[in-house]
Write a structure and sequence with these properties.
Helix content: under 10%
Mean pLDDT: 90
Radius of gyration: 35 Å
Distance between the termini: 79 Å
Strand content: over 45%
């Protein structure tokens, strides 16, 4: 009987597999062994009757080779280390360029040499290098390959609004500051200024400390810097971002459909990361503009560790530039600082000192091949001192005002890659915020102190599991503690009040993600289950992101989320903290200050072809649990303490075309936003932050190292509440208002310009020069309007606040 037929019968009877080469058994025939024999006996019989040797491995695999060649062969089995299954067609490459492949059982063999160095490779597995000694061992090698996981970057639409800005599959906008091109009025990739170019994002008062996303207030946005929640986001009381624009690597902005790992927000999420995605070389840069100077440095301590520092400080201690003067006039108009001069009928003296700084530190250490530790520290501070004096009728009146705002934060993170499919991230963070005002007046011999402090710390655990190439599952736990203190202290007459509240929240997070690039389906569903200790209350927050590529050019996206928030900013009096930074943080008491909750859904269609982009998104959003104190009313509701909600729906559109080095776009947003206070006499009226129509246009040219941008922004006026002139008694004026927000201020229109040029010397030093002009046409844009009774004239006066006048800026930066 042919030898091949004999071993096939043995394989079937004893459930084993024979490994052999066809040359060794070609033409071989013999009498088969008796079926009653054991496997070992059969192998011994075959060895006696043939010129072959048989190696039995665990009664599963039988290696067959010629006796005279026993000493000249090396054999082995290739397995997957994940499931221990054999790998077929693995490629074994020898140093002499000989190549063999493994069979269905993972088996391979090759002739021995003096030094046998070979590589084992297979698609989807990491290549392994082996050295087999020239010994007399007859045992076959057992080799295990690790799967090779390649994390593909999510497909994004390139260059939305400017180079360095893209949109991810999860619906978020992603800004890469180091790849940032240029936008009208911006010469640096300021995160909070840049995000205002995105449809649906505005600042009602031209401030980065008052960013309104789809009708929400600034405090309803969650701002994270390397996992640290930031309660102060601006320098110069809102005109400059508090985050160094030359430091960040990735800025993710979610208007809707944010991950379940983000909590404490009923509006948008802005997550800023300064950790690079890939290793970078040592670098240093320094820059200066007409407001501040900064330095940045990164130094690799070893192959597995580096340290990164940055610092930025205002230059107002040394020089008052035209930019500084415009900023100062914008910030301090209609505040108690300027009220002092308005109330004096004689000349007065004023001595102002203003400055700010921020600094960051990052330390990264890799431990082995699986672990990484990252430490992040940040400090932000603004300080204002104003001394004013005047003499009237031989009476000296003076005020000494000090206002300090600062935010410190730290985050310690540990990440471990258990294997190619499972990762754990743990981080512990702390954030401390303080706003303090101290006013001393000589006339009343009075000292007024106001203080608002926030301490926020927590613990995050996140596990990521790759189930298969299309499906991943994430789970985690978060603990968050926030404590808020509000202090008011007055002398003459004496008054003291200090209130401190603390809330602790636990959250369980579950999230699954399905991503099939072939069928163009992306789907993420998750939930966040919050438990608030103080109220013994559970809040469930489901989140969803769905994207489907209808064609290669047309994509549909559906986003939805439920979110909640326990902290908010309120205004007790418009003159608190000199009326400059009058908002103070407070936390929910579940009664007069409810937990804010939001629900939102949006549908987006985008079409890209031939360098055209058409994008339209319809959304609906409702936020319940707001208070009148958090909305900045300056009408009949200023001193009314009630709770309600707001409901906003609208459409955001973007048309963009790229032609070689030229990019132009036009965006339009329609926003219908109404309050609902059911217990008030006018239960429904327009939201204070409603900008019903917003349109923007930009033309951008980028070629080589030269960039230039021109753009304009136009918005319909925000709501205002005029007084009822028919009920004014001019002899004894009392403010009687019309229906809240029944009118609007004038439209806002602004043209901005910016340009940068970069060059590099032969020794690798880069230089960058930038210039920008805000409000080129010097239009006097009204951004708010309210009414008060003048103590000087005993009449009702209209108080208007205006945006920046024409404001130039220039920057210079050197990097190497």
């Amino acid at each position: 009987m042919p030898f091949k037929k004999i071993i096939i019968e043995i394989e079937q009877q004893h459930q084993v597999s024979f490994n052999y080469t066809e040359d060794n058994i070609a033409g071989l025939e013999l009498v088969p062994p008796k079926k009653s024999l054991s496997l070992t006996e059969k192998l011994e019989y075959l060895a006696q009757k043939t010129h072959l040797s048989f190696e039995n491995i665990s009664n599963k695999f039988i290696n067959v080779y010629k006796k005279e060649n026993e000493e000249s062969l090396i054999c082995g089995y290739v397995y997957s280390n994940t499931d221990k299954k054999p790998i077929e067609n693995a490629n074994i490459s020898l140093s002499n360029k000989t190549q063999v492949s493994s069979d269905a059982n993972g088996y391979f063999e090759f002739k021995k040499e003096d030094k046998n160095i070979f590589l084992i490779s297979h698609v989807g597995f990491e290549t392994k290098k082996m050295t087999a000694d020239n010994t007399d061992s007859k045992d076959c090698l057992q080799l295990f390959l690790e799967p090779e996981i390649t994390q593909l970057q999510e497909i994004k639409t390139n260059a939305i609004l400017a180079s360095g800005i893209s949109k991810s599959k999860d619906g978020s906008f992603e800004i890469k500051p180091k790849k940032f091109g240029i936008l009208p009025g911006l010469i640096e990739p300021d995160a909070l200024q840049t995000m205002q170019q995105i449809p649906g994002v505005n600042s009602i008062d031209e401030s980065v400390s008052s960013i309104n996303v789809r009708g929400g207030t600034h405090d309803q946005n969650l701002f994270l810097w390397n996992g640290i929640r930031m309660f102060q986001t601006g320098h110069f009381f809102g005109l400059i971002s508090a985050f160094n624009p030359n430091l960040a690597h990735t800025i993710s902005i979610y208007k809707n459909g944010s991950s379940a790992f983000y909590g404490e927000s009923v509006s948008s999420v802005v997550a800023i990361s300064s950790t690079p995605e890939t290793a970078e070389k040592n670098s240093f840069s320094a820059g200066i503009n007409m407001i501040n100077a900064d330095i940045y440095g990164k130094y690799n301590l070893s192959k597995k560790s580096y340290i990164e520092i940055s610092a930025r400080k205002s230059i107002t201690d040394f020089v008052e530039t035209p930019t500084y003067k415009e900023y100062f006039d914008k910030v301090f108009q209609n505040t108690t600082i300027t009220d002092f001069s308005n109330k004096q009928n004689v000349d007065y003296q004023s001595d102002k000192k203003f400055g700010f700084y921020d600094a960051t530190l990052k330390y990264v250490q890799k431990i082995g091949t699986k672990d990484q530790i990252v430490l992040d520290l940040i400090t932000i501070k603004d300080n204002l001192e104003v001394f004013q004096s005047a003499t009237l009728n031989d009476i000296n009146r003076s005020e000494n005002n000090i206002l300090r705002q600062q935010n410190y934060g730290g985050n310690l993170a540990w990440k471990r890659n258990w294997n190619s499919f499972n990762t754990t991230k743990i981080n512990i963070y702390n954030s401390a915020y303080e706003l303090r005002a101290n006013q001393r007046t000589t006339l009343e011999d009075q000292i007024v102190v106001q203080e608002n402090t926030v301490y926020n710390n927590g613990f995050n655990l996140e596990n990521n599991h790759i189930i298969n190439p299309k499906f991943t599952f994430n789970d985690g736990y978060q603990f968050n503690e926030i404590g808020v203190t509000n202090l008011e202290q007055v002398t003459n007459p004496d008054f003291y009040r200090r209130v401190k509240e603390v809330l602790r929240t636990h959250a369980l997070i579950l999230e699954g993600k399905y991503n099939d690039t072939i069928s163009r389906i992306y789907f993420t569903a998750g939930t966040r289950i919050n438990y608030i200790e103080k109220f013994k209350k559970y809040i469930v927050e489901p989140r969803m992101q769905f994207s489907y590529g209808i064609t290669k050019s047309l994509n549909a996206e559906l986003l939805g989320e439920l979110k909640s928030q326990n902290s908010q900013q309120i205004i007790n009096l418009q003159k608190d903290y000199f009326g400059i930074e009058k908002r103070r943080w407070t936390i929910s008491n579940n009664t007069t200050i409810p937990i804010q909750k939001s629900r939102q859904i949006s549908l987006n269609l985008s079409y890209t072809k031939n360098s055209w982009l058409f994008d339209i998104e319809n959304f609906y959003k409702k936020v319940v649990g707001i208070t009148t104190s958090s909305q900045g009313f300056q009408n009949q509701l200023e001193f009314v303490k009630i709770t309600g909600d707001y409901e906003v729906w609208g459409t955001e559109m973007l048309i963009q075309k790229k032609m070689n080095h030229f990019l132009t776009w036009l965006s339009y947003t329609y926003n219908h936003n109404n309050y609902k206070f059911s217990t008030y006499e006018y239960p429904i009226f327009p939201n204070n932050f409603e900008l019903m129509h917003t349109a923007s246009w930009a033309g951008i040219y980028e070629k080589n190292n030269f960039k230039i941008a021109l753009g304009t922004k136009w918005t319909s006026g925000r709501p205002k509440t005029p007084p009822d002139n028919s009920q004014i008694d001019h002899s004894n004026p009392i403010l009687v208002y019309n229906r809240p927000n029944s009118s609007n201020v004038h439209i806002f229109s602004q043209v901005n310009f910016s340009s940068t040029y970069k060059w590099e010397t032969a020794n690798g030093i880069q230089y960058k020069l930038g210039i920008s002009i805000l409000n080129i046409l010097n239009r006097k844009n009204e951004i708010s309007e309210y009414y008060r009774i003048s103590s000087l004239t005993n009449s009702i006066e209209e108080v208007e606040t205006f945006s920046l006048q024409r404001t130039p800026n220039m920057s210079f930066r050197v990097s190497f």
